[in-house]
Specification:
Elements: H1 7-22, E1 54-58, E2 61-71, H2 76-84, H3 93-98, E3 102-120, E4 123-140, H4 141-152, E5 159-163, E6 167-184, E7 189-216, H5 220-227, H6 236-251, E8 254-267, E9 270-273, E10 283-286, E11 295-307, E12 312-326, E13 331-336, E14 341-344, H7 345-349, H8 360-382, H9 390-393, E15 396-399, E16 404-407, E17 411-420, E18 425-434, E19 441-453, E20 456-463, E21 473-478, E22 481-485, E23 496-509
Antiparallel strand pairs: 1-3, 1-23, 2-3, 2-23, 3-4, 4-6, 5-7, 6-7, 7-8, 7-11, 8-13, 8-14, 9-10, 11-12, 12-16, 12-17, 13-15, 17-18, 18-19, 19-20, 20-21, 21-22, 22-23
Helix pairs in contact: 5-8
């Protein structure tokens, strides 16, 4: 039995992970903990209306770097093991017990190549060139159960019923060139917007829509017994009775395998390889030397902040409203709808000729040889231990008839804060819903913020949903350096982990005449 486990499927995720590093891609481009830290400009990534106390120039590349790894059920070490394909993690009861019916995995990165912001009158202008990437996957528990039992229960494939449909992988990587403007309308209302030109690096959607199998097949021991000449010794009547019994058993045997999948890829440098003699995809390969712009798009962020009372402020924003159109020349389409395997026991039962007593044994052996051959073909497909099983899927590449579009992972942000001690201390609550693939990510964050000076801010946060309530966040602005996390790493079973680092040079302050009263 094969022991490759998730190698093929996770090889693609791992390869994509490497691609994102090569291209300096990015996303999870905001830090929730920074939202109520008035001294930092990074909160504008969550709401373009939230202006900082000073202008800034971020240092190239390291001026704003953010990375997040999260899952609805898998711990940090589980995710590393899956991507590395190391050990027998999926055979461990603790791992299996942590799984839900559907398990999402999100890996996100971001960095600003160049960004700056400055005050001019009541307006705050900002400019940025950044790189963004989202990787999302959905892995079902039924798939891990299938791999577990195929590995730990000998010959389980002969008598089993599995449906491992629903695996999904989504990737979106692009460069963003943005121009933002925030304006104080009056002493209570501030609005902001950012428009963005997008240069698409790559996009991929892989869906294993249908992989279902069931079987009831004889064991090798039974086949060997029925094929042995000694089994067919005896009188003509005894031989005929054995043949009739065997025909009845054959009628109950079956093996079925149904497969359906689709791949849409718009990545320059990503090749779908076919082995000689096969007309379907047998491997993925990425050539960083052929990397280029695969599409163009547009996006916009909108936000507002309103003081209900002197100490009570509410705010809202919608981020990344937009799309990328991927060029036809960069797009590859592949689909998998191979002829289903449908082994019917009646086919082999009909091969047994009980009307000719002299040839009953030979007809049985012929039926058994055919059944064993067909059974081995079925076994070769279902016991490889690969979810991305190329021979099973038989993804056939087709020509893209037109360009394709993908929407950005939009985010809805709602916030409220209350200030104390002349607004030097504040508590806040923040709701974010990010519409990533395959499932939206919702988070509720509570925070306490101490902000005595523009050069010194500190925040403590607690995000209740994505980390299953088992983590907390910290943010610290000390002069030009900002460090933060929404999900502190607390051990190998942390569901969500992230980190943010920023280094910037401060510029002009907002004029006193223009400050909110």
């Amino acid at each position: 039995m094969a022991t490759n486990k998730l190698l093929s499927f996770m090889k693609l995720i791992g390869m994509t992970f490497i691609m994102t590093i090569i291209t300096l891609p990015a996303n999870a481009q905001f830090l929730r903990t920074s939202y109520f830290m008035e001294g930092t400009h990074y909160r504008q990534q969550l709401n373009p209306a939230l202006t900082p106390t000073k202008g800034f120039i971020n240092l190239p590349v390291i001026g704003a770097v953010n990375a997040t790894v999260g899952s609805t059920s898998l711990g940090y070490q589980d995710i590393i093991d899956i991507i590395d394909d190391g050990g027998d993690f999926y055979t461990k009861p603790d791992f299996m017990n942590r799984l839900k019916d559907n398990n999402t995995l999100n890996v996100n990165f971001s960095t600003e190549i160049l960004s700056a912001g400055w005050y001019k009158g009541k307006n705050f202008w900002s400019f940025n060139i950044g790189l963004r990437t989202d990787i999302g996957a959905n892995l079902t528990k039924s798939m891990f159960t299938f791999l577990n039992q195929m590995e730990t229960i000998e010959d389980n494939w002969r008598n089993s019923n599995y449906d491992i449909s629903g695996q999904q992988l989504n990737i979106n990587a692009y460069t963003e060139i943005g121009l933002g403007l925030s304006r104080q309308i009056n002493s209570r209302l501030t609005v902001g917007a950012r428009v963005k030109a997008l240069l698409g690096i790559g996009n991929m959607e892989l869906k294993l829509n249908r992989i279902a199998m069931s079987a009831n097949l004889p064991t090798d021991q039974q086949i060997n017994e029925w094929s042995n000449d000694s089994y067919w010794s005896g009188s003509s009547g005894e031989i005929e009775t054995k043949a009739k019994d065997l025909k009845a058993k054959f009628d109950n045997y079956h093996a079925n395998l149904a497969v359906g999948a689709e791949l849409k890829s718009s990545f320059k440098g990503l090749e779908l390889k076919e082995e000689e003699g096969k007309d379907y995809v047998t491997d993925f390969d990425f050539d960083s030397g052929n990397l280029g712009i695969a599409g163009y798009g547009f996006g916009i962020d909108l936000g507002a902040s309103y003081k209900i009372l002197d100490n009570l402020t509410v705010s809202a924003s919608i981020l990344d409203l937009g799309f990328i159109s991927w060029s036809k020349s960069s797009t590859k389409i592949a689909s998998a709808n191979p002829d289903p395997i449908n082994i019917k026991g009646s086919t082999y039962a009909d091969m047994i000729n009980i009307t000719d007593p002299q040839n009953i044994a030979n007809s049985v052996k012929g039926a058994l040889n055919q059944l064993q051959s067909d059974t081995e073909n079925y076994m070769d497909l279902v016991t490889q231990g690969d979810v991305l099983n190329y021979d099973m899927l038989q993804l056939e590449v087709g020509e893209a008839k037109e360009s394709r579009k993908s929407r950005l992972a939009s985010t809805l942000v709602l916030g409220a804060e209350y200030g104390f001690f002349n607004n030097k201390l504040a508590v806040g609550v923040l709701s974010t819903t990010r519409f990533v693939q395959p499932d939206a990510l919702t988070e509720l964050t509570f925070s306490a913020n101490y902000r005595p000076k523009s050069w010194f801010n500190v925040a403590l946060s607690y995000s209740a949903i994505q980390s299953a309530g088992k983590s907390f966040g910290l943010g610290l602005k000390l002069g030009p350096i900002f460090l933060g996390t929404d999900y502190m790493f607390l051990g190998k079973n942390s569901n969500s982990v992230n980190g943010f680092i920023g280094v910037s040079i401060p510029l002009n302050k907002r004029k006193a005449c223009c400050k909110q009263g």
